[in-house]
Amino acid sequence: MDNIQILKRWRLILGAEAEQKLGSMGCGGLSEEELLMDSALSQIYGAGSFGGKSGGRGPSSPMLTKWLGDLRTLFSPMEIKVIQKDAIERKGLKQLLLEPEMLSGLEPDVSTASLLLMLKDQIPEKSKENARAYIAKIVEDINRRIADDLRRSVTAALNRREHSPIPSSAALDYKMTIRRNLKNYDAQRGVLLPEKFYFFDRASRSASRTVILDIDQSGSMGESAIYSSIMGCILASIRSVRTHIVAFDTEVHDLTELCSDPVDLLYGIQLGGGTDINNSVAYCQELVTEPEKTTMFIVTDLYEGGNRAQLIRRLEELKASGVNVIILLAISDSGKPCFESGLAEKAAGLEIPCFACPPEKLPELLEAALKKRSLKTFEKAAYDNK
Predict the structure, then answer these.
(1) In contact, 118 and 271? CB cutoff 8 Å
(2) Are 267 and 217 spatial neighbours (Cβ–Cβ below 8 Å)?
(3) Are strands 241-248 and 209-216 parallel, antiparallel or unpaired?
(4) For the CA atoms of the chain, what is the radius of gyration?
(5) Could you tell me the pTM of the whole model?
(6) Contact 75, 83 (CB under 8 A)
């Protein structure tokens, strides 16, 4: 290691206050990556970090969640352990993570849940069950908010087209039965005399549509990963939809087998680390068997660390084959998302919708996507919120 690199390391250790002094010794300016490292370190060791000096009140969870994700891309695993330990000690997180009763008293909060999932390997044994119970509360809360509406949206999108020869009063398609039998209306008695009844095919054992959820695990996508994972578990419980849940950083993780237990699935998410969207899309391409009946949601902020040109080609291929591809920049209540606009524009140029979506709009979005309706209203809403 040469003298300049040693000086730069001292600059990162000592912070911005030492910049002038070390500059006079030939340190030179920091590179873009070193500036990111400096920013990450200053969050925990600088005087103005997170919530300032009043660390006992705790940091902003969304800010801390993103910061922890950034750490994984900038430092080695050994360095990350030291910095995370200091974060817990210095910034008021120790009580949250180490004391079981604290977790028991917390109200369900998706930002806090994403933080816990990111730090799950740091949580001591005595608090693990409480952390899991807290994640379960989040799952229950989100299910209460969207599960019934999601199931209704799938029914509205699919069952109106699928009919069965098996009679069932609960599955009677009133609208089609009336429409097809209007010719048999007895005006004198004022009654309709149907010759044939039509029933929805609610007993079909085979899935008629496929939904693929490709979820970015980077630290900034914590809330979105939670919402999209729970949405995937709800969809997996509906037998008319074949659901695949894939999570990615620089590696691809197929979590489909964990769909029966959303808490297990969330614990399978490894929040933080790099991003290779192209690699994950390549994997998802192999899952497509009936393109025209497949809807693929890519949940990502589009900060691609892999092959951008190849990613665009893959998206173009999926679109051309008939797959309904939708990019969700965020599924969150946190407002305007941060995303890579250049890649978003290229995706939009392929007529791939690209927008953020609040959780309460997921059922409406899913129904529109399965029916292959225009998503312009969702895109406009996302634009209006910028």
Answers:
(1) yes
(2) no
(3) parallel
(4) 25
(5) 0.71
(6) yes
CA atoms of 35 and 12, how far apart (whole Å): 9
Taking only the tens place, the pLDDT of each residue in 158-177 is 765 455 555 656 567 777 78
> What is the domain-level CATH number for residue 224?
3.40.50.410
Q: Is 150 domain-assigned?
A: yes
For residues 256 and 287, give the distance between their C-alpha atoms in angstroms, rounded to a whole number.
12
Residue 139 included in any domain: no
The token pair at 23 is 């500059």
Cα separation, 111 vs 94, whole angstroms: 17
Domain span at residue 350 reads 145-156+207-384
For 34-66, the pLDDT digits (tens) are 777 777 777 777 654 544 433 333 444 456 566
Token pair for 352: 């791939």
CA 196 to CA 33: how far, in whole Å? 70
Q: pLDDT per residue over 58-105, tens digit each?
A: 444 456 566 666 777 777 777 777 777 777 677 666 666 666 777 776
**Residue 92 C-alpha from the chain's centroid:** 27
Pair 112, 226 in one domain: no
